[in-house]
Specification:
Elements: H1 2-19, E1 34-37, H2 54-60, E2 87-91, H3 98-106, E3 109-118, E4 121-124, E5 135-138, E6 140-149, E7 158-165, E8 173-176, E9 185-187, E10 196-197, E11 208-217, E12 219-220, E13 227-228, E14 233-243, E15 249-260, E16 263-267, E17 270-271, E18 276-283, E19 287-289, E20 299-305, E21 308-322, E22 332-340, E23 347-355, E24 364-365, E25 373-374, E26 377-380, E27 388-391, E28 407-408, E29 412-414, E30 426-433, H4 450-456
Parallel strand pairs: 1-21, 17-30, 20-24
Antiparallel strand pairs: 2-11, 3-8, 3-10, 3-14, 4-5, 6-7, 6-11, 7-9, 12-13, 15-16, 15-18, 18-22, 19-29, 20-21, 20-23, 21-22, 23-30, 25-28, 26-27
Length: 477
């Protein structure tokens, strides 16, 4: 009997639950923000924090995620290749890569080339020396990275980029190109820094390959004519990229659109109650989400209104990064926000600025003051694929905080992981919620009484010249 009562109770609860209306159930999640990424870099790019931390660089510079050599971008050349002769290795079609586009268009994506060199100690017996004694001299090897004319090009280009000279160090291995190891590197800027910038990859850069060259330099001994031409060797070459500049919002690439009944009807700055303001906020460079894609109605920016302390908020609905265009090599990178004008709003309102660090209560601003947003590094899924993945790396022990490694201050970063800068871009958006009213009425009338007075012989000087026909309208007036 107890079992039957228990079964009856369970069935009753289930029946009651089925009677609860569906709209009373909580909505646990919104749809994710629309996310469009046409292209991503062929390699992970060091950012302002990962690229300035030697511990992190040493750990990842040999990884195929970051290193173009380890990722087999250069023909017949890998991270384990030993070189003991004059030789060149090419990254064919470098100008077609997305990294080349970023170097060209942003003008702040930089590059580093490093290598481990072994300068051999050679012994030679020359007849001019007493007792034919063996003498020791040291050979020197140069290695350089440069951009060169592509085989399918008619352009005459030989644009040297980074150039390293390795001093004679007998029998020693010397890693050159890493900031903490060397003061002997030189580059096109002559600043002996870890990273170097090249500008003007386009239009000549549209036809450029990247090349690594090893070249042996003979040494004269004791001012004599004899030379040593024996080669040194190189191993563990690394070609890595760096972007230390954070993305910004740009008014120049921003559009204001109107949406009515869920459809875009055109570009305008004038809105009325019930209409949706769509803000396509332009970015200074290609951007991505720092980690996971947020849901709609989660991330917001503020709308600053002229002469009104009350803040309005627009929700992030899309991140779009299209391009570059094959012919014009242009990239369109925008964040889209939406705000619907309340149907009950009254008066005239002017939105003058956006606040990227503002959000309503219990929601998240696009840009935070503290680095409390999860960050992952963007890289290719494997060396030969075009699909990207997000790497979860560990904060180096030498780093004072996780900022730039696993945490960031913005939901949106550039491809390297630099956070979007907080700002207040200016806009001009007009909201007219004021009903029309009669401000002033001006009336005039033609009484048609002059002819009548003239026929009656009434003169203007007569005392009774002004009569009731001048004051009241009748037939014919």
């Amino acid at each position: 009997m107890k079992a039957k009562r228990l079964l009856s109770a369970v069935l009753a609860v289930c029946l009651c639950a089925a009677l609860i209306p569906r709209f009373a159930l909580p909505v646990w999640a919104d749809d994710p923000v629309e996310y469009i990424l046409d292209r991503t870099p062929e390699l992970a790019i060091f950012n302002a924090y990962t690229g300035s931390n030697s511990e992190y660089y040493e750990k990842y510079m040999s990884s195929w995620r970051y290193n173009a050599v380890a990722a087999l971008k250069f023909e017949n050349f890998s991270y384990d290749t030993k070189v003991g002769e004059d030789k060149e290795f090419y990254w064919r079609g470098f100008y077609k890569t997305y990294i080349a586009y970023l170097m060209d268009r942003t003008e702040h994506v930089e590059i580093n080339y490093s290598n481990t060199m072994h300068n051999y100690e050679h012994k030679h017996t020359w007849g001019s020396w007493p007792n034919r004694k063996s003498q020791t001299i040291t050979g020197q090897t140069n290695s350089l990275l440069y951009l060169t004319q592509s085989p399918d090009s008619t352009q005459d280009v030989d644009n040297y980029y980074v150039y390293y000279i390795f001093p004679p160090r007998s029998g020693e291995y010397n890693r050159v190109g890493n900031a903490e190891y060397t003061a002997v590197q030189t580059n096109i800027n002559g600043d002996n820094s870890l990273w170097s910038t090249i500008n003007g990859v386009s239009p000549a850069g549209q036809y450029l390959d990247m090349a690594i060259e090893f070249r042996n330099v003979p040494y004269y001994y004791n001012g004599g004519a004899k030379t040593c031409t024996c080669g040194g060797s190189g191993k563990g070459a690394a070609v890595t990229f760096y972007d230390g500049t954070a993305p910004k919002a740009t008014v120049r690439n921003t559009r204001i659109l109107k949406k009515v009944d869920g459809a875009i009807v055109g570009e305008t700055n004038n809105f009325q109650p019930g209409e949706t303001i769509v803000i396509e906020l332009g970015m200074s460079e290609p951007v991505r989400f720092a980690d996971k894609i947020p849901n709609k109605n989660t991330v917001y920016i503020g709308l600053l209104v002229e002469d009104d302390p009350v803040m309005r908020y627009a929700a992030l609905t899309k991140l779009e990064n299209r391009g570059p265009n094959a012919s014009e090599r242009k990239n369109t990178s925008t964040l889209t926000f939406e705000y619907t004008v309340p149907a009950t709003q009254t008066g005239l309102t002017t939105i003058t600025n956006l606040d990227l660090s503002a959000a309503p209560s219990s929601k998240s601003a696009l840009v935070h003051k503290d680095a409390d947003i999860d960050l992952k590094q963007m890289a290719r899924r494997d060396p030969m694929t075009t699909q990207y993945t997000l790497l979860e790396v560990a904060k180096p022990n030498s780093a004072s905080s996780a900022k730039g490694f696993t945490k960031t201050t913005s939901w949106v970063t550039d491809m390297a992981g630099n956070a979007l800068v907080a700002s207040n871009p200016s806009v001009n958006i007009y909201i007219d919620c004021q009903r029309p009213f009669v401000a002033e009425a001006v009336a005039s009338a033609e009484m048609n009484n002059l002819d009548v007075k003239e026929d009656r012989g009434v003169a203007a000087s007569d005392a009774n010249y002004r009569d009731e026909s001048d004051l009241y309208m009748g037939d014919g007036d």
